[in-house]
C-alpha cells in the first residue's frame, strides 16, 4: 500500500545538498528506501579509504547490522542526500522483506511541502568529532 513520495534534492541550509518533500507527508509514513550496494564491513573499510584517495568528500555508507552496510556512494538513490539533524522529522528503520534487510526512512511527524527531510545519523561516539551543522535548539554540536 506504499506510494512513492514525491521528493526532490536541492541546496540545503544544513549541509550542501538535501532532500525535500514535494507533497505533504503525514506522520508515520514511509518516505523513501535507502538504496545502494550491500557490502561487508571489510569492503566498507577499503572503500572508505579509496573514496578519500579519489577526493570523494562524502561517502554514503549506512550500517544495516553488524555484518552488512549499504553503500550508496556511487549507486544509490535520492535518500543519500538526507542530512543529519539533532531534531529530525524522520527516522531510519531496518525492515526485512523476503529475507533481505532494507533501510527505510519513515516520517516522525507531518512534513510540509518544501520541508527538508532529516534523520539522526546516530553515529557511534568517537574521539575525533564530526561537527553538526543542523543549528536546531537541541543540537548536540557533533554527529558523533
Overall tally of structural domains? 2
Q: How big a fraction of the residues is strand?
A: 25-35%
CATH class category label of the largest domain? Mainly Beta
The CATH topology of the largest domain is Beta-clip-like
Category from helices, strands and their pairing: mainly beta
Strand order of the largest sheet: 1-2-10-7
- In CATH, the homologous superfamily of the largest domain goes by the name SET domain
CATH architecture of the largest domain: Beta Complex
Low-confidence stretches: none
Number of helices: 1
Reading the helices and strands in chain order gives EEEEHEEEEEE
Task: Estimate the mean pLDDT confidence.
Answer: 91
Describe this structure in words.
With 144 residues, the chain is mainly β. It has 2 domains: 1-34 and 82-143, SET domain (Beta-clip-like); 36-76, no CATH class. 9% of the residues lie in helices and 33% in strands. The chain has 1 helix and 10 strands, in the order E-E-E-E-H-E-E-E-E-E-E. Strands 1-2-10-7 form a 4-stranded mixed β-sheet, with no helix packed on it. Strands 3-9-8 form a 3-stranded antiparallel β-sheet, with no helix packed on it. Strand 8 (90-97) and strand 9 (100-107) form a beta hairpin. The radius of gyration is 15 Å and the shape is globular. The mean pLDDT is 91. Its main location: nucleus. One of its GO terms (cellular component) is Set1C/COMPASS complex. This is SET1A methyltransferase. Residues 5-122 form the SET domain. One of its GO terms (molecular function) is histone H3K4 methyltransferase activity.
Amino acid at each position: 500500500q506504499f506510494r512513492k513520495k514525491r521528493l526532490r534534492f536541492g541546496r540545503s541550509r544544513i549541509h550542501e545538498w538535501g532532500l525535500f518533500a514535494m507533497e505533504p507527508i503525514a506522520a508515520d509514513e514511509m518516505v523513501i528506501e535507502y538504496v545502494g550496494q550491500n557490502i561487508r564491513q571489510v569492503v566498507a573499510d577499503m572503500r572508505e579509504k579509496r573514496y578519500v584517495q579519489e577526493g570523494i568528500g562524502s561517502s554514503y555508507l549506512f550500517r544495516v547490522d553488524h555484518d552488512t552496510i549499504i553503500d550508496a556512494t556511487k549507486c544509490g538513490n535520492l535518500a543519500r542526500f538526507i542530512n543529519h539533524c539533532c531534531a529530525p522529522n524522520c527516522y531510519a528503520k531496518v525492515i526485512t522483506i523476503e529475507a533481505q534487510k532494507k533501510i527505510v526512512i519513515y516520517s516522525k511527524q507531518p512534513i510540509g511541502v518544501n520541508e527538508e527531510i532529516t534523520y539522526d545519523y546516530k553515529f557511534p561516539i568517537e574521539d575525533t568529532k564530526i561537527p553538526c551543522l543542523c543549528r536546531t535548539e537541541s543540537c548536540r554540536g557533533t554527529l558523533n
